[in-house]
Design goal:
Elements: E1 5-14, E2 17-27, E3 32-36, H1 43-50, E4 58-63, E5 66-67, H2 72-77, E6 79-82, H3 94-104, H4 109-122, H5 138-150, E7 156-160, H6 168-183, E8 187-192, E9 203-208, E10 211-217, H7 218-222, H8 227-234
Parallel strand pairs: 3-8, 3-9, 6-7, 7-8
Antiparallel strand pairs: 1-2, 1-4, 4-5, 9-10
Helix pairs in contact: 3-4
Bound molecules: adenosine-5'-triphosphate.
Family: Belongs to the ABC transporter superfamily.
Pfam families: ABC_tran (PF00005)
GO molecular function, one term: ATP binding
């Protein structure tokens, strides 16, 4: 039983096309795990399985001790997700969006107000609480997506390419913040195709054409070569 995320023997196919084959991954509480894969590796399919958009015909997914197929509500209640696509209502204010998502998790009244204020403070967004999401720049919208995903205090945080379209400063702010969340005890799975988002101390899982090619501490896996070089070699056409 783990308080983080545990994936074992998970597979998925779209008709005859195998999108994921026998995937196993452990993300313990307090760890940041980068799921690195080129386009088409299967990252989005894995996220669809983790969030129960799809159900897996094989294998087991456990979120904070809850089996996703046997106890989906308990498992999903312990999970926060930052999707690739925006999930905020652009016509509502920043604060109203957070209160709305809190209500979806059964949190309302003073507790919801408190959590929204906390989330906005933590992400440096307090003075924007009354603005409509439509008025925010891309970096602030991403921070809001993150605040939304954290409102119910999940044990496991999933992020699907959360820095797409952001400038360097916004990318760094989000990446740093999520590392802090992991250091504070959350289990984080961060899907990306960008090697420069991975730190040596992170756990790293490399996914390519639906298979796990390598797993371990990022610094150990790359050895003396830059991660980018190793990743490109490993996932080059014809490789593996
Ligand atoms: N609805 C679908 N029908 C058939 N094949 C699909 C479908 N969705 C994805 N695939 C295929 O499954 C494989 C994995 O796709 P997936 O979208 O999970 O990869 P990804 O790593 O998220 O890539 P990207 O970064 O481009 O989103 C790819 O070969 C893709 O073409």
């Amino acid at each position: 039983m783990t308080s983080g995320l545990s994936i074992a023997g998970v597979g998925y196919r779209y008709g005859p096309r195998e999108a994921l084959v026998d995937i196993a991954l452990e993300v313990p509480a307090g760890r940041f795990c980068a799921l690195l894969g080129p386009n088409g590796a299967g990252k989005s399919t894995l996220f669809a399985l983790l969030t129960r958009l799809f159900t897996t015909p094989s294998g087991r997914i456990v979120v904070a001790g809850h089996d996703l197929s046997q106890a989906p509500l308990a498992a999903l209640a312990r999970m926060g997700v930052v999707f690739q696509q925006p999930t905020l209502d652009a016509d509502l204010t920043v604060r109203r969006n957070l209160l709305y998502f809190a209500a979806l998790h059964g949190i309302d009244g003073r507790e919801a107000e408190k959590r929204a204020t906390e989330a906005l403070d933590r992400l440096g967004m307090a003075e924007r609480a009354g603005e409509k999401v439509r008025a925010l720049n891309g970096g602030h919208r991403r921070r809001m997506e993150l605040a939304r995903a954290l409102i119910h205090r999940p044990a496991v945080l999933l992020l699907d390419e959360p820095t797409v379209g952001l400038d360097a400063a916004s990318r760094a702010a989000i990446t740093d913040h999520v590392h802090t969340l992991a250091a504070d005890g959350m289990a984080v799975l961060w899907a990306t195709h960008l090697t420069d988002e991975v730190r040596d101390d992170d756990d790293l899982a490399i996914l390519h054409r639906g298979r796990m090619l390598a797993q371990g501490r990022a610094g150990d896996l790359r050895g003396d070569q830059p991660l980018r070089e190793m990743f490109l070699k490993m996932t080059a056409e014809g490789a593996a």
